[in-house]
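Dear H.,

Thanks for agreeing to be a second pair of eyes. The structure we're designing against is below in token form, covering all 194 positions.
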């Protein structure tokens, strides 16, 4: 057997162990602090390690416990900012999606996933009064803001064919840090016009 190969039995055991860790974590959520008691030094000491040529094998899974001790748990008790719910059923869905590991670039590459994306975007569009609109799902808020600004710019000062035209983005001082990042990535220029 080659080094990178793993038997069905071993894979099954590892999957059980990983799921066991997830289940214990979910069961412990209500008892966890809203924010972990940790410092920059603590986390640097725990997680800045040399890269090991031969890896660490299965025991690496146990790191989940110390990572969880130094992570913000997904409960309803954190009000610092808006956070994702970490919904367990969603997490299981993510696991299954990762098992299929599709490239959702086009129908050709991922027939089922592309059709599901179209259906879900359709539902979302309908929910916000934009029935019939199309779009793509993205991985989070930063990417969503980048896409939104790109689309807004394309609607008003098209850049796709001939490049960026000078334009201004209005935003409050309190705007999320992903907005200036998106503005920079879009080549609009981040200099603030007061
Ligand atoms: C308003 C807003 N935009 C963007 C983001 C960034 O989201 P993500 O971390 O998913 O890229 C957040 C969350 O931090 C947010 O609250």
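And this is the sequence the design step returned. I haven't edited it by hand at all.
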């Amino acid at each position: 057997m080659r080094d990178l190969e793993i038997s069905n039995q071993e894979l099954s055991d590892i999957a059980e162990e990983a799921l066991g860790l997830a289940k214990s974590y979910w069961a412990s959520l209500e008892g966890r602090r809203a924010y972990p008691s940790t410092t920059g030094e603590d986390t640097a000491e725990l997680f800045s390690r040399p890269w090991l040529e031969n890896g660490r094998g299965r025991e690496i899974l146990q790191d989940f416990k110390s990572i969880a001790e130094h992570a913000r748990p997904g409960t309803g008790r954190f009000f610092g900012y808006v956070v994702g719910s970490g919904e367990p059923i969603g997490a299981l869905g993510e696991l299954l999606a990762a098992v299929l590991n599709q490239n959702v670039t086009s129908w050709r590459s991922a027939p089922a996933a592309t059709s599901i994306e179209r259906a879900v975007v359709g539902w979302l569009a309908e929910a916000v009064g934009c029935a019939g609109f199309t779009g793509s799902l993205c991985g989070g808020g930063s990417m969503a803001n980048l896409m939104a600004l790109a689309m807004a710019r394309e609607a008003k000062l098209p850049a796709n064919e001939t490049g960026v035209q000078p334009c201004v983005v209005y935003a409050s001082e309190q705007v999320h840090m992903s907005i200036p990042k998106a503005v920079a990535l879009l080549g609009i220029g981040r200099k603030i016009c007061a």
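Two observations from my side: The radius of gyration is 22 Å. Residues 8-28 form the longest helix (21 residues).

Warmly,
E.
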